[in-house]
Amino acid sequence: MYYFFYGLLYLVSLLPMRVLYLLSDGIYGLVYYGVGYRKKVVMANLLIAFPDRSEEERTRIAKKFYRNFIDSFIEVVKLLSASDRFLKKRFTVDASVLDELHATGRSCQLHLGHTFNWEWGQLVLSGLTDYKILVVYQPIKNNFFEKLFYRLRTRSGNVFLPANKMRDSIAPHLQSQYLLGLVADQNPGCVENAYWLDFFGRPAPFVWGPEKGARNAQLPVVFAYIEKPRRGYYHATLTLGCQKACSLKEGQLTLEYVRFLENVIRRNPDMWLWSHRRWKHHWKADHAPRWISEKLQPGIG
Description:
The structure is a single chain. This protein is of the alpha/beta class. The protein has one domain. The protein is 43% helix and 19% strand. The protein is built from eleven helices and ten strands. A hairpin with a 2-residue loop joins strand 6 and strand 7. Helix 2 crosses helix 4 and helix 3 crosses helix 4. The longest helix is centred in the first third of the chain and has 24 residues. It is globular and about 50 Å long.
C-alpha cells in the first residue's frame, strides 16, 4: 500500500510548479473555507500575538498563513522528483557564519522556528557546509507519512534523530564535527522542566534541551530565519547567537532565541506555523522557579 500511494504522489510531483500551485490554491479553498482546519486555534493565536490589530488584519494574516501552509505541503511532495539543482535555484542560504565556525574545528547548534519551508532548507544547507548535519525531529504518528517524510528528509545524507531517543541517537556522532539543527519553538512534553518566558505578552513554556545541550558541550549557537521573496522561492539567513553557550547565564540563550523568534514572526507573520497551540499550557505559580525575565529574575539567574 505504501508503494502504491508513493507512486501516486511521485506522478503528482512530476507536474510543473505552476500546475502544483494551482492544485495548492484548490486545496487552500477546501481547507480554509470548507474544512476550516484548526481555524479557531489559528485565530486565537493571532489574537494573542497581535491584539492591537483589527480582526480584518488578523484574518488577512490567517489566509496568507494557510496559503503558505498548503504550499509547503505541495513543495514537500515535489521533493519526490525534484533535483538538487531545482532546490538550490529556489532556496538560497547565507551560510557564511558556518564557514567561519567550521574553520575553528568546533561543532555547533542551529536554532530555528516553524517558518516555511524548513523541509527544503535543511536539504539545501547540506550542500553548502562541511558540517555533518544532524536534525532533531518529532516522529509522525501516521506510519505512511513517517516513512515518506523520513525518506525525503534524509535524501541528501542528513541524519535525523528522533527527539524521544535523542541521547542514544546522537552518541555515534559526538566525535565528528557536526551541526545540530533544532526547531527550538517546539512545545515541551513536560512543562515542569520547561523554561517559561513572556512570548508576545503571555507566559509560554519552551523546551530547555537546546540550551542545556549547547551549554554542556560548550558549543556556539546559530539562529536562522527564512523569508519568502515570492511564491516558490525562499532565502534563509544564519546569524551567530553566541560563541560559547556556557559563557552565558542559564536561561539567557533561550531568552535571546525567543526574542529573535518574536522579531522574525513580526516581520513575516504569515510564515510561522500558527496552527500549533503555542499557548496551550497555562501559567501556574509552581512554574516560577523556571521563569526567565529580561533581567533573568526572578527564578533562574
